[in-house]
Amino acid sequence: MSRKHSVRTAIIPAGGFGTRFLPATKSIPKEMFPVGGKPVILHVVEEAVAAGIEHVIFITSPQKHAVEDFFSSNQLLEDYLLGRGMMETVGRLKEIQGLAHYSYVHTQVPYGNGGALLAAEELIDDEPFIVLWGDEIVLTKGPTRAELCIETFEAHDLPVISALRIADPGRHQKYGMAELKDFEQDGSGNVKQISRITEKPDPGSSPSEYATHGAYVLDSDFMNVLKHTYLGKNGELWLSDALNNLISSKQVLARILPDALYLDCGNPEDYLASQLMYAEHIKEISE
């Protein structure tokens, strides 16, 4: 029997143009690039489903059909494979198609990652949801980041963001770095309260070594906060700005992920490094 969680919906934004990977991303979304033999976005969906997610909402652009094609049936391909006795491969394809109920929301132009979330508002049915990015993988020892964040949300009924330790100060300016304080209701030391998030801080000005990034468990009230958030950098709507507005009105928690391995597949240099780190991780856990 599958586990039931109050958080049953995941939103996975995957609508950007992937300009840093051009010309490859002219026809293939970066979320579809392989790591360990399967697309990055499949790693993300499998993590979500393992945490109890039943409905996955993909935010894509009208020009990006590859994600929808990947998670949909292709009868011509399946018939071809069956004709060659490749039943196991067909079974795997059908398994992917049936992992969850999939919905697709097409946004016309990039409008910041906050705009991508607003596009999914009508599909969340006033229920809590988790946001996961489609171009990154987080590997943990034991429960996944999605499981840990959902577990923390259900324990405290407060918004939760995963927190990754970024040991190299030179990389702090790539992320939203959090100022954290103790959360009295937690004795593990792995749940903190977020005081503020500084988006891409200048060198030497990061409030901590923890980036609040990767997984966001939010309730439907957050959409109202998002709607009333002013446009930020480049005239776009940003999740980090809305989260800071939320922090000013209620407690928001950070779920620290000890020993997490963060694989950023959103740019060419980190994508190559992620391939190597993933291979090393698989080697370690198989020994």
From TrEMBL:
Catalytic activity: alpha-D-glucose 1-phosphate + UTP + H(+) = UDP-alpha-D-glucose + diphosphate
Keyword Nucleotidyltransferase: yes
Enzyme Commission number, as recorded: 2.7.7.9
Domain Nucleotidyl transferase: 10-278
Gene3D superfamilies listed in its UniProt record: Spore Coat Polysaccharide Biosynthesis Protein SpsA, Chain A (3.90.550.10)
Domain of life: Bacteria
Keyword list, A-Z: Nucleotidyltransferase, Transferase
A biological process from GO: UDP-alpha-D-glucose metabolic process
Molecular function via GO: UTP:glucose-1-phosphate uridylyltransferase activity
Pfam entry (one): NTP_transferase
Family: Belongs to the UDPGP type 2 family.
Name of the protein in its database record: UTP--glucose-1-phosphate uridylyltransferase
